[in-house]
Design a protein that fits this description.
This protein is α/β, with parallel strands linked by helices. Helix content is about 45%, strand content about 20%. The termini are far apart.
Length: about 425
Amino acid sequence: MRETFKTLITDFQERKLNGIVPREYNIPVDSDKIISLIGVRRCGKTYILFDVINKLRETIQPENIIYINFEDDRLFPIEAKDLDALMEGYYEMYPNKRDELVYVLLDEVQNIPEWERYVRRIYDTLNVRIFVTGSSSKLLSKEIATSLRGRTLTYEIFPYSFADFLKAKDIKVNVNSSSSVSHIKNALNEFLTDGSFPETLAQTPDIKRRILRDYLDLIVYKDIVERYGVKNNSLLKHIIKYSFCNIGTLVSLNKLYNEFKSQGYKVGKDTVFDYYSYLEDAYAVFSTPIFRNNIREENRNPRKIYAVDNGFKGVYDAFVTDDYSKLYENAVFLHLRRQTPEVYYYSGKQEVDFYCRIDSRQLLVNVSYRIDSQSTREREINGLVEAMEYFKMKEACLITEDHEETISVGDNKIFVLPLWKWLLGAINA
C-alpha cells in the first residue's frame, strides 16, 4: 500500500488542474481546523478541493500538497490500518518535509471505516493542515462530532447555484443589458429542468438524464444499499421515485407507509422511515417541517419534500415542464438551504412556502410561477401578510416567473421578483 500511495501522491503533484470554475464557497486555506466538505455525490466537492490546491500552489511547493481520492480503484480494498502507509510513504519520498507544513486533502474519505481516528491522530501529531470530503451527512457529521469535536469546520456542498451555473456557462450578469438578461433567462430554463450538476452542463438533454440516472444508482448502491445493508431495493427505488415526482408537496411518512402497504409492499413502518432517512443522509432529498415553537408539534405535522437537484425530477417525470411551479419552488428551497439548514414552511389560515433565518435576518418567501389571476394573487399576498404579522416582520418576497413590483400593505412591503433576479441576489435573496 505504501508504494501505491507514493505513486498516487507523485502523479497528482505532476498534474495540472485546468478548467476549474471557482465556486461561491469561501473555503479557508489557512485555518488551523480540519476542513470538512460534505454533500451529495458528483456535486463538485473534488473540484472545490482542486480550486483550493491551485490557490495553495501559488504560494507553496507542489511537494507540500498531498491529494488522495479514496475512490481510486488502485486503493481497493483499503482499511483503516492501511492509512499509516500514506504519511510514511510521503516522508520516505520527502524526509525534509517533516519540519514543514504539509497540506493533506482526503477525497471521499467516508469509504474507510474509522477514518476519523487516523485523521485525528495525524492532525494532533504532525505538522499538517487537513481537508476531507464525504458523501454522507449523517455518517460524516456523526464521526466528526464524536472524534473530531472542536477540531473541524464543516461546509455543505451542493450542485451549482444559479450564479455558479452562469459562471460555468460563461454568461455575464448585467441586469441593465437586454442581451445579458436574455441569456440569463434562457439559462434559467435549463437550470430548472435539467439541474445543475457540473458534469451535465455541456451535455444534450438525453445524455444529461442518463448521467443523472447513473448518479442515482451511485447514491442508491454506494451510499445506501452497501452502507446500510438495505434488503428491499424495490421499496427503496419506489421511495426515490415518489420523492422526486412529488417535490414541494406535503408528505406524511405515516400516509406514505399506508400507501406502500396498499400497493402490496410487505414492509414495516420503521423500514419506510429508515429508507427515507437514508436518502436524506445521502443528501439526495430534504424535508422541511412546519414552523412551530416545539419539536413535538413540528413532528406531528407533514413535511414538504425537496430534491438536491431539479434534474432528478426529470429522470422520472417525462412531463416535468408541465409543473414549472414545483421546479421554481425547488430552486428557491435549494437557494435558501445553501445558506441555512433551518428552513421551514408556515401554516396558519394560509400557507407560506418558506420561513428561515439567515444570519440575523428573517426571510418569508412564497413562490408562484404566475400571479395573473386575481385569486392566485390574493392568496399569495394574504398568506404573506398573515405570516408577517405572526413573525412580526415588515418585509417578504413573492417569487414569480417574470413579474416585478413592490406591494405595500399598511406598513409592510412585499417584493414581487422574477426568480432569476432573486437567485442572483436581489432584495432578500
